């Protein structure tokens, strides 16, 4: 929603927040930053070998479903599924179980790489189609 | 450990293209990809929209928040949006979102001084950036009279003023996505349908009389079939008009002709229709959606930390690498 500020326009800017640098070592700081920006966490299944869950923060069905379908194309993947644990929580959990020829992590990376290449191809195909329509754009 | 690729090579064919409308075929991929593209086009391709309104004078009949809401919904040309910053992660302005990298300023001043009602429209908004202006909906094809400012020159009405009423404001437009607020969605509608594959059982069809054929054709709510005037055979005139309503199948069964028709959805073939609000061209919207989806995929790659941790502590990792 647009924020409404009535006529007196003298100070729209909020006072600048004061930054207190914490006594962190460089290594601590780097790991803190990585922790804050890491979107994916990986958890190996305790009972089943070659099975794992990937928790992907701030993603939904858009990523979950293409990832799941791409994993299904992989012959070494025995099970691949995703769930949105709660409609108000913005995260998904992708579960992968593979054969001993592969690993969940390998399958996950492979799926992302393949999807990325597919989208590259799609982009080129679409641009080629646009170029095929002379005089229009 | 080198693994085989399971990559697909989808095909695209553009059928119809206008600035704000696009119809294309997407083949050799699955519904998850088609749906991801649709979802991204609607909710995740960024545009620019008014997000903050500072009202100086408002003596119109609409209250301030009502006008602010209406301003927010005006589509602005957003070719710049992909290269712009979100004001929340803009470091040039302490995140208050008022610098040139993440915002565009608009001014509006209107006062009615005659007895004639004054329409305040999107054309009265003055932008600080000539690339970001309210979308022009006037159709160039009916602009036959360049001096006719009544019909062709209208924008989107914001408020109407009577004699003595005034509206004066400053507005800040920012980059955003449809997920945060629908005003940022560049898409009016994005739909896709499975391409239908229709097979008529010709032998069974020939057992019908002309009247039966006609009544069977009539049973379809959309015009999918017709009769060939010369041969009196039933022909498919427009397979894509079929809405998967099953009416013709039910009709065939009611006539005791089960298997007269076989209609199946091709699982890997989609027909997309994209309508844009005018913020970006429909063709650009598709390209932006592909780009955004790529960025999203990049963002969910496993970090090196995670891989290292698994390499070190994963019993299986050691085992598999012959350790």
UniProtKB/TrEMBL annotation, chain A:
Protein name as annotated: Uncharacterized protein
Species for this entry: Populus alba (White poplar)
UniProtKB/TrEMBL annotation, chain B:
CDD domains: RNAP_II_RPB3
Pfam name, any one: RNA_pol_L
InterPro entries per record: DNA-dir_RNA_pol_30-40kDasu_CS, DNA-dir_RNA_pol_insert, DNA-dir_RNA_pol_RpoA/D/Rpb3, RBP11-like, RNAP_Rpo3/Rpb3/RPAC1, RNApol_insert_sf, Rpo3/RPB3_RNA_Pol_subunit
GO cellular component term, pick one: RNA polymerase II, core complex
SMART domains reported in the protein's UniProt record: RPOLD
DNA-directed RNA polymerase RpoA/D/Rpb3-type domain residues: 21-303
Localisation per UniProt entry: Nucleus
Keyword Nucleus included in the entry's annotation: yes
Keyword set, alphabetical order: Acetylation, DNA-directed RNA polymerase, Nucleus, Transcription
GO biological process, one term: transcription by RNA polymerase II
Single GO MF annotation: protein dimerization activity
Stored PANTHER family: DNA-DIRECTED RNA POLYMERASE (PTHR11800), DNA-DIRECTED RNA POLYMERASE II SUBUNIT RPB3 (PTHR11800:SF2)
UniProt similarity note: Belongs to the archaeal Rpo3/eukaryotic RPB3 RNA polymerase subunit family.
HAMAP family: RNApol_arch_Rpo3 (MF_00320)
Annotated protein name in UniProt: DNA-directed RNA polymerases II
Native source organism of the sequence: Populus alba x Populus x berolinensis
């Amino acid at each position: 929603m647009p924020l409404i500020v009535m006529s007196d326009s003298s100070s729209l800017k909020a006072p600048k927040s004061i930054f207190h640098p914490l006594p962190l070592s460089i290594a601590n700081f780097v790991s803190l930053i990585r922790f804050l920006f890491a979107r994916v966490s990986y958890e190996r299944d305790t009972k089943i070998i070659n099975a794992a869950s990937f928790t992907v923060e701030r993603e939904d069905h858009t990523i979950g479903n293409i990832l799941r379908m791409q994993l299904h194309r992989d012959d070494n993947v025995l099970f691949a599924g995703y769930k949105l644990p709660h409609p108000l929580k913005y995260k998904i959990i992708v579960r992968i179980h593979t054969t001993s020829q592969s690993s969940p992590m390998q399958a996950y990376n492979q799926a992302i790489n393949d999807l990325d290449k597919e989208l590259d191809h799609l982009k080129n195909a679409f641009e080629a189609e646009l170029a095929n329509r002379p005089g229009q754009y | 450990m080198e693994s085989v690729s399971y990559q697909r090579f989808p095909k695209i064919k553009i059928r119809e293209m206008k600035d704000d409308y696009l119809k294309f075929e997407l083949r050799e991929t699955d519904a998850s990809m088609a749906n991801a593209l649709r979802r991204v086009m609607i909710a995740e391709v960024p545009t620019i929209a008014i997000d903050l309104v500072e009202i100086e004078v408002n003596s119109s009949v609409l209250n301030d928040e009502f006008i602010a809401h209406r301003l927010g919904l005006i589509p602005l040309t957003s070719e710049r949006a992909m290269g712009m910053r979100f004001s929340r992660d803009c470091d040039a302005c302490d995140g208050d979102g008022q610098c040139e990298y993440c915002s565009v300023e608009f001014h509006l001043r209107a006062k009615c001084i005659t007895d004639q009602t004054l329409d305040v429209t999107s054309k009265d908004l003055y932008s600080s950036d000539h690339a970001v202006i309210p979308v022009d909906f006037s159709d160039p094809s009916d602009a036959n009279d360049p001096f006719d400012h009544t019909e062709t020159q209208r924008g989107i009405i914001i408020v109407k003023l009577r004699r003595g009423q005034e509206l004066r404001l400053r507005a800040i437009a920012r980059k955003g996505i449809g997920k945060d607020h629908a005003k940022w969605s560049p898409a009016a509608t994005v739909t896709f349908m499975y391409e239908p594959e229709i097979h008529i059982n010709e032998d069974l069809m020939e057992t019908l009389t002309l009247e039966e054929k006609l009544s069977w054709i009539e049973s379809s709510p959309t015009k999918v079939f017709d009769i060939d005037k010369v041969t009196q055979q039933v022909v498919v005139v427009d397979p894509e008009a079929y809405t998967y309503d099953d009416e013709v199948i039910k009709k065939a069964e009611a006539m005791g002709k089960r298997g007269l028709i076989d209609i199946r959805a091709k699982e890997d073939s989609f027909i997309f229709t994209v309508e844009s609000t005018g913020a970006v061209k429909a063709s650009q919207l598709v390209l932006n959606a592909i780009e955004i989806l790529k960025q999203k995929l990049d963002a969910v790659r496993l970090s090196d930390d995670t891989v290292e941790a698994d390499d070190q502590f994963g019993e299986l990792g050691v085992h598999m690498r012959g350790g």
